[in-house]
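Exercise 7b. C-alpha cells:
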C-alpha cells in the first residue's frame, strides 16, 4: 500500500521553522527530535521539517510516500521513468529512497521499521 506520509520541507534551523509554523499558522507539533526533524499536524496531512542532517532533497519541498517495500517501489518507479537520486538506504527510522519523477520533482519513499 502506498499513501502520502508527509509533505517535507528542509530548514537550516528546525526550532525556528517549528516556531513559525506553530505560532503563526497554528499547526500543532506532533513530534520533534531536536534540530534534526519535526512533524506538525497539517489537518489530515503531516507537515515535516528536516534539518540539515535529515534534508534529503537539498532544500526542495517534497512529498514523502509511505510504502511497504522501498526497494520494490524504487525499481517500479525507475522502470517507469523516475530518476534514483539516493538510496534505498537505512535511515534513523527505517528505509528510504529519494527519486525525481519524470518532470524532475523530488519525492521520498520510506518504510518504517517493523
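Sequence design result:
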Amino acid at each position: 500500500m502506498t499513501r502520502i506520509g508527509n509533505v517535507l520541507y528542509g530548514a537550516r534551523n528546525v526550532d525556528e521553522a517549528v516556531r513559525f509554523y506553530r505560532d503563526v499558522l497554528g499547526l500543532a507539533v506532533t513530534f520533534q527530535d531536536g534540530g534534526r526533524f519535526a512533524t506538525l499536524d497539517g489537518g489530515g496531512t503531516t507537515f515535516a521539517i528536516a534539518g540539515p542532517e535529515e534534508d534529503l532533497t537539498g532544500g526542495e519541498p517534497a512529498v514523502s510516500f509511505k510504502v511497504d517495500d522501498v526497494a520494490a517501489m524504487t525499481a517500479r518507479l525507475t522502470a517507469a521513468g523516475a530518476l534514483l537520486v539516493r538510496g534505498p538506504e537505512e535511515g534513523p527510522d527505517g528505509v528510504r529512497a529519494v527519486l525525481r519523477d519524470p518532470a524532475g520533482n523530488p519525492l521520498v519513499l520510506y518504510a518504517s521499521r517493523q
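Instructor comment: Residues 22 and 47 are 11 Å apart (CA to CA). The chain has a mean pLDDT of 93.
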